[in-house]
Amino acid sequence: MLIVRVSDGKFYSTAMVTIMVKEAMDSGLHFTQNFYSTSISENSTNITKIAVVNAVGNRLNEPLKYSILNPGNKFKIKSTSGVIQTTGIPFDREEQELYELVVEASRELDHLRVARVVVRVYIEDINDNAPVFVGLPYYAAVQVDAEPGTLIYRVTAIDKDKGDNGEVSYLLKEDYGHFEIDRGSGSVTLKEAFNSDLSNIEYLVVILAKDGGNPSLSASVELPITIVNKAMPVFDKPFYTASVNEDVEMHMPILSINATSPEGQGIIYIIVDGDPYNQFNIDFDTGVLSVISPLDYEINSLFKLMVRASDALTGARAEVTVDLIVNDVNDNPPVFDQSAYNATLSEASLIGTPVLQVVATDADSDNNKIVQYQIVQDTFNSTDYFHIDSSSGLILTARMLDHELIQQCSLKVRATDNGFPPLSSEVLVSISITDMNDNPPVFNQLIYESYVSELAPRGHFVTCVQASDADSSDFDRLEYSILSGNDRTSFIMDSKSGVITLSNHRKQRMEPMYSLNVSVSDGLFTSTAQVHIQILGANLYSPVFSQSIYVAEVRENAAPGTKVIHVKATDGDSGVYGQISYSIINDFAKDRFLIDANGQILTTERLDRENPLESDIDIFLRALDGGGRTTFCTVRVIVVDENDNAPKFMTVEYRASVKADVGKGYLVTQVQAVDPDDGANSRITYSLYSEASVSVADLLEIDPDNGWMVTKGSFNQLKNTVLSFFVKAVDGGIPVKHSLIPVYIHVLPPETILPSFSQPQYSFTVAEDTLIGSTIDILHVLPNQGALYSTVNGELSANNKDGVFIIEKDTGLIKLDKRLDHEINSAFHFKVAATIQLDKVDIVLTVDVEVKVLDVNDNKPVFEAASYDAVIMEGMPIGTKLMQVKAVDADSSANGQVTYTLAVESELHKITEAFTIDSNSGWISTLKDLDHEKDSAFTFAVVASDLGEALSLSSTTLVSVTVTDINDNAPVFEHEVYRGSVKESDPPGEVVAVLSTWDEDTSDVNRQVSYHITGEKQLALNIQFPLPDGDIAVKTDTVGF
C-alpha cells in the first residue's frame, strides 16, 4: 500500500494506491536468456531489426505468441517469430538513453500462462549537438596595470552529447595579443601587459567552443573586455537593461545606475548618447534614470542609452550601456483606410456575392493589432441582407435582394482590436441596389393538391394551375409545362391555360400518387410549383388465394387458441381496395375456429377426432376487399389422432364350452376389441391375464393379433368346473391404454355331446323405419336340447349396448325393441348365447349376429350457415361468382344428394334477372351488370332439396347481397349558367357567386368534388373552397377585367 502526494508548492493532496500481488501461474515457458541487451544509433529513421527473443517449453508444433507490453511508438515485435524491430520513428539519446522493453510469450490457447523477459535497448550517441555557452551575456574589465597571467573571465559551454562528442575545448578566434584562453577550462587570462597610458579601451574578443566529435561542431560568443585604470569610476554592473510601458507616467523612476570612485570621491552621471529627443533624464547625483517625455512604442520600441559616470575631483570617467525596452500598450484604435465606403450591387446577385472589403489597420503590436469586423445592428440599416467576414472585412450578400423592396442599404461597420480593453472605430458603408427585370411569374400556390379516379378516361380533367406576373406585359406570355414527375407521360398540360388532363398514353394501372414539378415562364424567368395528384384507386382486382384448397393438421385435444394455418389472399389494388378481410362461412367451422385479420386460423375449442363430424373438418373461407370483390377457398383440417381411448371389447364377457379331453390346438373362442383411435394408437395386442392358482398360460394360448384362444394343455383336472380369467387388450399408443374382459371356459365331461347353432354366424338386413316389436329372425341350436337364449351385448352402441335388439329366452326369436336410425348406426354386431343346463356345469354356446340397417329418406338437407351475407361491387362482369351455399344431407345415396334452386317470394322477376344458382354446386353468380344506384341490396332464399325416391325433403336459407358503390357518376351542376356581379371597388374576398353540384354516387369519397376555373381571365377570380354543403365561394384577387 502506497501513499502518493502531489503538491503545487503551496498546497498538496494525497491518495492511497493499493497494489495486489497475485501468485504467478507456472506456465512451463521460459526465455533462452534471463534478459536481452541491444543497441541502436539515435536519429535513425530506418525500420531496423534490433533483437530476436525466443521462448521454449511449448509442446511440439504448439505456436507461441509474442508481444511487447510497453512498446510505445518506437518498437514493435512480430508475434510469431519474436523479432523486435523499430518503427522508423527516430531516437534522441539526449532525451532518453535506455529503453527497457517487457516482452511476453503466451500460449495460443491459454493466454493466462505466460513468460516474460526484459530487453534493454541502449541508444548510441552521435554528434548532433553543438556546444552552447551558458551564463550570457559576458562582460569583463581588467586594470591597465594588471600582470600577465591575471584571470580576466571564465566562459563555460556545455554539450549534450556523450563521450568525445560532449568534450568541449575553447580557443580564441583571432590572436588578440594581450589575451589567451585555457583550452580546457575556458579561463581568459592576460597574456601581455598593457601600456600604462591606456584607459577606457574596450576589446571585443570572440571565443570559440568546439566539441570532440568527428566532424566537430562549434559555437562562438563575444566577450567585451574593458581596460580601466585605478582612477576611473567603476559601475556595479557591466551593462544595464530595463523595460517600461509606453504609457508610463512622467518623471517615473525606471532604473538606478550606481558607480563608485576608487578615490572615494563623488560621482556625476549624465546621458551622453541614445536620447535624441531628450525623453529621459538621469539624476546627476543619484544616478536614478526617469522618463520626462511621453514614449510611443509605435515610434521607437528600443532605446540604447550611453551613461557616463565622472569623478567629481579628478574628472576620470567611465561609460556604461543602458538598454531600455518600451512595452506596447493598446493605445491605438483601428483606423479604416477610407472615411466612408460606397458600392453598387445588382439585385440579381446570388447569396454569397462579394460586395466590397473594408480595411482597418492598428498601429499597436501583437494581439493589440489584430482587428475583428462586425456589422452594427441599428434601426437604420439592413443588416439581414449582408454578412461580413470577421477577419478579412469582406462584405457578402446573406440573402437575395429585391429592388422593389429595398433600394438603398446603409451599414455601420465596426472594427475592434484584440487589446485589453479593446478599442474600436466605425465607418459607414452605403450600398445601392440596382434594378433589373426580376419579376418572375408566381404560382398562386406552391403546392397543388388534386385527385382523379383510376377509372377516369383519357383526356379527363385533373386540375388547373394558375400563376401571375407583376409585370403586366407578361400576362399573355405565360407558358406552362411539366418539368418532371411525368416519366410515363400519364398527364399532359395545356401550355396556355395550365389545365392538366390525362393523356392518351396513360396506363390502365397507375401509381397511387404522382408529384409533378410544373413551371411557368414569361420568356425570361421561370417559376415552379408542385402538383400532387392522388389517384383514387378503383377496385380493379379481386382477392386471390394462393391455393383453392389448403390442407392443415391439428392435434386433437389441442388447447383453444392453437394456430392451425396461415392463409393469405393478395389483391393487386392499393389503398382501401387492397385491404382484405377474412371470414368463415360455414357455421360448423365457425363454432370451432376463428380467423384473424392477417389470415391466421386458430381453434376456439378442443377437437375430438373420434367424433365423426370432427375427424376431418372443411373450413369455407371468404376474402373480401374494401370495394366488394371476393374470393373463396377451402381449408381442410385433418385432426391428428391422440391416444385418448382405451380398447373396447365387443361384448361384456366371453363364454365357451370345451370337453375335458379336448386335444391341443382346439379353437375355443375369439375375443374382439376395437379402439376408435387411429394408426398405432388403434393397433390392439391381446394377452391372457389371471390371478387364479391354475396357470391359464399352461392350458391356453391366445393369438396376440386376432384374439383367437387355442388349447395348449390338458383340461382333465378341470372337468365339471368353469375356468375363469381375463383377456387384456393393449393398444399401441404412447402411453399405452388397455382394457380387461372376463372369459369363462366351461369344462365338460368327455362324454358330453356339444350341440351347435344352425349357422356359424347370422346376418340380417332391416329398414331403419321398421316398427318396434317386429321379428327379425329365429335362432336355434342342433340338436335341440331345450336351450335358453340371451344376447351378449358390448360396450358400444353398435354392439347392442342399448338393447335395440332382444331375443326371446325360450324360442330364440330376435325382435326389434327400440327405434333404428341408419345415420347413427348403420349396422349392429353382437353375440347370442345359448345355455343348456346340466347337472354340474352348463353348456354355453355363442354365435355372432350382424344386423344391417337400410337407409330411408328421413333427413332433410341442412345448410352449413343459417344465413349468408354476400358483397359484390357494382359494375362487375356477368357471370361473377357471388357466393357458394352448401347443404349436407345425412342420408345416403340418392337420399343424401342435394340440389339447389332460388326461391323468391316477391320481386321474382328482379331476382331471377340478376342472379342464378348452379343446382349441383350451389354457386350463385350474376346474370347482369349490377348498379348500386338502382339496387344497393338484394335478399332472396335458396332451397336445398334431396333426391329421395319416395319423398323429397328440402330446407331453405336466406341470402343477403350488398352491392357496393364505385365512382361511376360525374358531378352535375344544379344550373347550367350562374351569373354574378362585382364592383370595381370591392375588396378581395367579396362573394361573386355560389355554385352547387350533386352526384348520384352515394359514398363520401365518390361524391367528393373539387372546383377549378379553367376559362379566360381566371386570374381575376379565385375559388374559396367548399363549405360543408358542397357550395363554393369566389373572391376577387384583382379588379378589372
Q: In summary, what is this structure?
A:
The chain contains four helices and 88 strands.
How would you describe what is shown here?
This protein has 1041 residues and is an all-beta fold. It contains four helices and 88 strands. A four-stranded mixed sheet has the order 4-11-10-7, with no helix packed on it. A four-stranded mixed sheet has the order 13-20-19-16, with no helix packed on it. Strands 22-29-28-25 form a four-stranded mixed sheet, with no helix packed on it. It is elongated, with a radius of gyration of 62 Å. It starts with a strand and ends in a 5-residue tail after the last strand. It is a single-pass membrane protein.
State which percent range the strand residues make up: 35-45%
How can the largest sheet be summarized? 4 strands, mixed
**Helical proportion, percent range:** under 10%
Structural class: mainly beta
Low-pLDDT runs of 5+ residues are 1024-1041
End-to-end span in angstroms?
Answer: 100 Å
- Strands, count: 88
Number of helices: 4
Mean pLDDT: 88
Shape: elongated
Q: What topology, given as strand order, has the largest sheet?
A: 4-11-10-7
Radius of gyration: 62 Å
Give the key terms.
4 helices; 4-stranded mixed beta sheet; mainly beta; 1041 residues; disordered C terminus; 88 strands
